[in-house]
Design brief:
By secondary structure, this protein is mainly alpha-helical. The chain is built from eleven helices and no strands.
Length: about 280
């Protein structure tokens, strides 16, 4: 019975999240927007890349940058989607107290709302990769992809996103509008430290050590190894086998998942005791 109720909550939250993300637009118009947006973002990055390299670039470096940026869309989009749900419900719609009353679990509702953004962002990733294969001739073939590694890395990556998103959502319960800046800052920091656009070896030694404690660092390396097995690994991770990479990725992700649950439950108790769960701040 509890499982059925949680599933109903998740599906209802997903439908609501989808409508909000699409802004109640016509499906065809929203589909067109969903295709144009990732391609436009991709082209901006490609132009910047060729300007920086002066048009002289190696195919492996371009593929390294392109694949990393494509998959990191999931981090940027999903992290903000999950972290802003409670703020939007409290400040924009002023319905957070009804969510508490109506839903079987706040966690299930949060993940249901965020799932809509994740699905939309995943489609953007797919469109970006297909565009890269068709236009820039990325060496990605359906027969060469390591599907078990790709699925495992995507699962762990989504758990890592959910963990950090839950922490930011918890912060939104005890702050006003500032959570938007927290999610943007966190996404930018991960973008800089996770080896998305360049190998980690170009970072100063201190930042390299910090990067090795972030789950997204291992995610970027894992998806590259899965999508383009022939691509040279990041020099900083060349000595780590694929099995070892997944093992470290799993351990760090599990650690952050436990931490996120502790932080969320603790801050939720703080707001309950203070009676400020549905208190708006005029933002």
């Amino acid at each position: 019975m509890a499982v059925k109720k949680h599933l109903s909550t998740f599906l209802s939250a997903f439908w609501l999240g989808w409508q909000i993300e699409a802004n109640w637009a016509h499906p065809l118009l929203f589909t067109l927007y969903s295709i144009i947006k990732p391609i436009s973002s991709c082209l901006i990055l490609v132009v910047m890349y060729f300007v920086v390299t002066g048009g002289r670039s190696r195919a492996d470096l371009f593929a390294f940058m392109y694949v990393g940026n494509a998959f990191f869309m999931l981090v940027l989009g999903s992290l903000q989607g999950l972290s802003m749900v409670l703020h939007i419900e409290r400040e924009h719609y002023q319905t957070l107290k009804y969510v508490y009353i109506a839903t079987s679990s706040l966690h299930v509702y949060l993940f249901g709302r965020a799932a809509a953004r994740i699905v939309i962002t995943a489609l953007s990733v797919l469109i970006t990769l297909v565009f890269g294969i068709a236009v820039f001739h990325l060496p990605i073939g359906l027969g060469t992809i390591d599907y078990p590694l790709l699925l495992m890395s995507l699962f762990l990556g989504l758990v890592a996103i959910a963990s950090f998103g839950l922490i930011l959502a918890a912060i939104s319960m005890v702050t006003a509008m500032h959570n938007f800046f927290f999610s943007a800052a966190a996404g930018s920091l991960f973008y800089f430290l996770s080896g998305v656009l360049y190998p980690l070896s170009v970072l100063p030694p201190v930042l390299q050590k910090v990067a090795l404690y972030l789950p997204f660092t291992y995610w970027m390396e894992a998806v590259r190894r899965a999508v383009i097995p022939s691509l040279p690994p990041d020099p900083l991770m060349a000595g780590i086998s694929t099995a070892g990479l997944i093992g470290i990725f799993s351990a760090i992700t599990a650690l952050f998942l436990v931490l996120s649950l502790v932080v969320f439950n603790s801050l939720e108790k703080v707001t309950r005791r203070a009676g400020t769960i549905d208190m708006t701040t005029a933002y």
